[in-house]
Amino acid sequence: MIGFLRTFSLAESRRFMQCKLVRQCGFSVQTTESALKWADSLVPGLDSHVYGTMLGRCIEQNDPISAKAIHCDIVKKGSCLDLFATNILLNAYVKAGFASDALKLFDEMPKRNNISYVTLSRGFVSEDPVGLYIRLLREGHELNPHVFTSFLKWFVNLDKAEIGWWLHSSIVKLGFCSDAFVGAALINAYSVCGFFDSARSVFEGILCKDIVAWTGIVSCYVENGHFEDSLELLSRMGMAGFMPNNYTFAMALKASIGLGAFDFAKGVHGRILKTCYEFDLHVGVALLQLYAQLGDMSDALKVFNEMPKNDVIPWSFMIARFGQNGFCDEAVDLFIRMRQAFVAPNEFTFTSILNVCAIGKCSGLGKQIHGLVIKAGFNLDVYVSNALIDVYSKCEDMDNAVKLFSELSSRNEVSWNTIIVGYENLGESEEALSVFREALRNQVSVTEVTCSSGIGACASLASMELGVQIHGVAIKTSNAEKVAVRNSLIDMYAKCGDIKDAQSVFNEMETEDVASWNALISGYSTHGLCREALKIFDSMKDCDCKPNGLTFLGVLSGCSNAGLIDEGQDCFESMRDHGIEPSLEHYTCMVRLLGRSGRLEKAMKLIEEIPYEPSVMIWRAMLSASIVQNNVEFARRSAEEILKINPKDEATYVLLSNMYAGAKQWANVASIRRSMKEKCVKKEPGLSWIEHQGNVYYFSVGMLSHHPDMKLINGMLEWLNMKAKRAGYVPDRNAVLLDINDEEKDKRLWVHSERLALAYGLVRMPSSRNRILIIKNLRICSDCHNAMKVISSIVERDLVIRDMNRFHRFHAGVCSCGDHW
Ligand SMILES: [Zn+2]
Ligand SMILES: [Zn+2]
């Protein structure tokens, strides 16, 4: 000890004491300055060694602000740190995440060594690791395993793992390829970019394979979907004498789930229990995946209940899986338990629980969670915000959905899609299309969801011109081949009255699903082409596609539209053979079909056999059939049942009144009018629309005064009235229930919305266009139906009207529905 002291000069011994004192005295942010002053007072002018010690202390105490203060002091005094101390300062900045400070210091360093580079690389502070690596080479620093592994990690961190091969050559050249430390980093880089062959050859080249290398190569095979190989590697690892650890157990579980080898996975679970790894987070989450995959949420819950619950991942996983499996109450319960356990939710938890709210349309809970999201500061996260937008739009609160959407600065295509689908589901097709256009203007990348909901909006508006344009957009964005887009195209073309185009979209499909078949079948059915619908149904049964409830609905409604009684009955009876229980809609079709063919008794018997409470729609079908067949008794009973469920059902009063008027029972007609007045029955306003040059024009009954083309339309209507009367059209005044004279009644009939839309079409559309398509929100009335037949031969054009039930194609005085609708 004495000899040791003797070799010290006086200054050196003072500095030694100083460092020792500095090391002993802990200082914090508030006392940095005083510590500096105090240290300075011992010997004026601190040197690198002292500063280095103090900076080391800052790193130990996780106190980057003090490190910065010391840096200021150095700059102020004009002192200069040596390389060793500067690297410590650099490390302090890197560890604190002060990227720009670190880079600035690095650039200003008069000298650097490979430690400076390694230090810099550990903080991932720059987006240009390649540039820095080249600098390192040019400056001639030593390349060692630390340099390689740090740069490889940096590449992976920046999603640039594929440039790892670029270091691989230097690694081989310098002979580090057999080093387990470098090898593991290379395996990881190759694994991330999917080059499992390269990863394998690196692995095989490692001389002394350690557990890290083994785990790395196994996880590489699992992450890249080569489950069998990964299990083989695991058994090789066991033979090499390595005990499995938590990572390898998690990998073994993942691999066996991927292979569907659930019994094997359960065996792994047994080994995990023996080695007590079930309390490990990675193992626990893999076990949850196993039991959730097996579809047994109660087993998953058992595993979950045994796990330590301080981490958010298992909670999020369970909430998400409960939600996806439709156990919404369980998901909500778990979320509450998680809050009680003081585990802070992350963006995945919030997204999952919000999805549950959206599925269950729980607007109250959704709003509460919105509050939590804001409190936890996740309101700027795009995934969470998208989930919130979805909750509001599914709960039919588009105002709040749009408000969130417009406030979201980082919106992505999912945000746009959610709004478009939200409007579309609420039937606000025009709004949906306007958001769709805005998305295109904003150059949002168009997905299949965007395309299919845009096309869906065109289908409900019967806006074929726009539909064709969006079809073009789908082709341009390579979405046109996707099944969902194809299905909505089939539906759109069919609903816009062009069943041929619908068929050709279907024919061009490589793989069709049940929705494709359904769209085509119901397309033919609404067009009244039931024989074709039945043919398609037969070819569907020949291929692998299993029909569902909607398929049968399409076929049955086709049969009832065309009056195919035997085919309809066969189809209805075969439903249970396909494992489908008929719903109220199926019964409605059958009642319509039986009633239409005059089998009223049978129809009434069927209604009585329905295992559920019959709906308004069923009684309505029965009522109109009874009226057509002049069965006053059944008509009265059906009307009573309808009015029991819906006392203000306007259509029922109209039908009953028509029937009494037809039977000349004027007292009954008067009593119906009285009860309508008493119950304040109001007609749902009839609305028709027509598309012209990509715009949709609406007409509501009697409303003409504001229309810019009012004069032209009125002129056309007068001309049509005159021509129709000459061709033998007699107005059916029973369709008007008001106490007014006949002349007034005739006037009112001529302002029904479909006639206004037709007059507009005749005025505006060139006569070269043979087909005029009009959409109506209600059922077409008997008088308009008569008038349309007559007009179709006067103007010599095809008039197509899609009412709430089906298509009517009027051609040369005849309607495709055969006067049954
Ligand atoms: Zn009408
Ligand atoms: Zn018709």
From TrEMBL:
Keywords: Repeat
A GO biological-process term: RNA modification
GO molecular function (one): zinc ion binding
Alphabetical list of InterPro entries matching this protein: DYW_dom, E_motif, PPR_At4g14850-like_plant, PPR_rpt, TPR-like_helical_dom_sf
Domain spans labelled DYW: 728-821
PPR repeat start and end residues: 82-116, 210-244, 280-314, 381-411, 412-446, 482-512, 513-547, 548-582
Family: Belongs to the PPR family. PCMP-H subfamily.
Protein name: DYW domain-containing protein
Species the sequence originates in: Arabis nemorensis
